[in-house]
Structure formats: structure tokens, C-alpha cells
Amino acid sequence: MTTTRTTRRNFLKAAGLSLAAAAAGSNVASSAPADRGKSKKLPNLIFIMADDLGYGDLGCYGQKLIQTPELDKMCAGGLKLTRFHAGFPVCLPSRCTLMTGLHTGHCRTNKNGGGGRHPMLETEDTTVATVLKTAGYTTAMVGKWSLGDHFIGCVKKHQNKDGSGAIYKHGWDYYFGEPNQTYCHRYYPNELYRYDRTGLVDKKTDGMRLDVVPLPGNSKKRTHYTHDLLTTKALEFVDAAKDKPFFLYVPYTIPHADYDVPEIEPYAKTADWSKREKALASMITRMDRDVGRILKRLAKHGIDKNTLVIFTSDNGPNKFPRFNSSGGLKGTKGRFELGGLRVPGIAYWPGAIDPGRTSDHLSAFWDVMPTFAELAGVKPPAPIDGISMVPTLLGKGEQKAHNYLYFGAGKKRLIVRNESEKRSEAEILKEAVTPVVVPKFPA
């Protein structure tokens, strides 16, 4: 495995020399199509992300009590990443690193906020969706956005205004869910939101705004469970978009608190478990079932062999000692420790990823943008912190390596070093913490 070292001055050069550029370079547009063998068609890309699922919450990562047969099967049929990390130990900054390809020393935010006052993306920020749009992909998100509370169409009057982080400004063709991080933790809300730029799945949205999907009385009647609605819309998008290359991002809210689920089967008779433990386990098993439904829908349409599916979590778990949710790692959600940051990482692509593989390649959310860009045959903006993981995924070619992964907010931080990184923490911080970086597409 080869390591590449980059100085702070080089990172900020206008030429865009960065860890990602050094790692991917001229190979970005050329390596992936040749690796797909006979097929010349661009691969579909699906990224499914749980909310607060720990490194040890799945059977394939050592869980003994919670049933996850579909994800275990997915893992057995694909690649298991054992050193894959979210972007931050809480959700909003983590999602920012995923979308921008930058860690929290360089990206827009390193805090959550709250109550409609969350830090948001700026209009100039480029997302994974924007990058894939340049390659001709149809882009969709179903679930929790978190990167823009203010948008036209919001039922909250103080947020019903055009904001820089609004979904319709960041490369999405289709959206269904709850954009706001504060309100989407409720699993029986009275409304959700939709955006359909072209009318691909539902009625075309009227202009740059989100439409309200009313669920009157749902908070009391408990008729519509949000997770189930999200899965339904994800499947509908696959049905509608199957004939052309698409990117589907599914940021589920399960198993985040509130611990609320329609049924607690198959754990109802586990007498010594608390109500909270039964609910958590049921939520995870429900999500597992629905990941399986998405994989089956791909196979039904005959596009499974041309679709990369990645499953992960946005950060570590809350404390559930019975389940060993952190998988033996120190720390939980909100802590700058491995248990708050290391998450499951499963990559599944029949015919392209050999089954039963495991990799300890050191990686994080900011690697997703350059990985997807390479598979789509386009160059990502620069400079970014991410390094394409295509050689690791496909098991061929030279995989460039991070010297370190940086996670931090002010004086709270964790630096995960690769074996070759010998610099002091002070030296690394000079490179890792700078003013906000705004990558630009190559001329």
C-alpha cells in the first residue's frame, strides 16, 4: 500500500493539489470503465446510511443478539471494510464530510446546532450529487438531509425562506423525507416533504421549492411510520430510474432515538430486555429487512450486476451495553474515540466485487466523493481530502493511502494514523485545520 504526503501549503494551492488529487490524479476518468469488463454502461450507485448504528450492531460485525440476516448476506456476498469511519461522532458534520469530500478541518461545519439553527451548506459548496450530475446521473435522496433548515415550502414559518443549504440547490433531481434534523427524529410526523424536478417518480415540483406531503393526525393516529415511507419511495425511484445511470442516497433515520417502532417482533418475548432495548433491536431488524428489499428490487430489474451498493452508519451508537453496540471499541456517539467514529462499511456489487472479501484499508466518508467520481468517469472538484477507494472495492490496481484521518472540533479531536505517519500531532494539525476550503472543478 502506497502513502502520499501533502503539506498545508500544497493543500491550499490554487492548482488543487490535495491528498485526493495526488491519490487519483489522471486515473480518475480512466480506470473504472475498463474494470467493468464487457459492460460499457456506467454503474448505478446506491449509498444507504443508518443513523446511530454502531460498529458492532450487525451480525457480520460480531453482533449476537440482534438479527440482521439481509445485511449479513450482503456482507458475505461483497466486501467488508474493517477500518471505515464516519466523518464525525454526530450526524450533521458527518453528513457534511460525506457530501463535500472534506473532513471537518476543512469543510463547512463541525457542529450540530439545533432548533432550525443548524449550520448549512453554502450555495458554492459542491456535493456528491452535483459531481454525478456532470456525468449524466439521475440523482435522488430519500431520508434525512440535515444540511439546510431553510427552504421554500417549510411549514415552520421562520424556516420558510430560501436557504443556501436547500435541497434543490445541491444537485438533486428527486427527494422525499424530512430535511430538518430536529423534526425528523419523530417517526410519526404530520408531514414530510418532496421534490421532483422532472416528475420522474411523482408529480413535478413547481419551481425551486419543496412540496409538503401532509400526513394529517399522524402523530396521534400513528398510521404512517416514516421509515416505511422512505423505503417505499426508494423502491419507487429504482423502478422509475432503472433504465439510465442513477445515484440513490438513502439516509435512514433508524435506529436514532426516539426508540419507536410499529412492532417489536421478533423480540417481544425476550423477557429480560428493557422496552428501549427491544425497540432498538426491532428498528435495526426492520431496517435490515428493507435493505434486503432494495437489493431484491435491483435483481428483479436485472440491474444488480451494474449497481454498487454501500451500507454504513453516520456515526457510532448510543450506549447499549447488552448489545456491545460499539463492537468492543472505546466510546460511543458524540465521543472522539473509535467507538464514536468507526462504523460498518459493506460494499456489494455482484460480478465486480468478489464475495467474502475483507479489507482493513483506512478510509472515511470523505472518500466517497472521489470513489463515485472515478466510477462515473469524471474528475471531482479539488482540493478535497478524499481518496478514491476503487482499487480496494474491485481488488485490483494500486490503492493510495491516507497518512491519517482527522476528526475534530476545536480542542476536541481524534487523529487516526496510518502505520507510516510519524509526524507529531502539532505538525498534522497545521495541515489538517485551515479556513473553510471550497473545492472547484478542474478547468
Task: Explain what the structure shows.
By secondary structure, the protein is of the alpha/beta class. The chain has a single domain, classed as 3-Layer(aba) Sandwich (Alkaline Phosphatase, subunit A). 25% of the residues lie in helices and 16% in strands. The protein contains 13 helices and 16 strands. It has a ten-stranded mixed β-sheet. A hairpin with a 2-residue loop joins β15 and β16. The protein is globular and about 60 Å long. The N terminus is likely disordered.
Low-pLDDT stretches: 1-39
CATH architecture: 3-Layer(aba) Sandwich
Strand content: 15-25%
Q: What's the number of domains?
A: 1
Broad shape: globular
**Care to count the β-strands?**
16
Under the CATH scheme, which class?
A: Alpha Beta
Keywords:
single chain, 443 residues, Alkaline Phosphatase, subunit A, 16 strands, globular, disordered N terminus
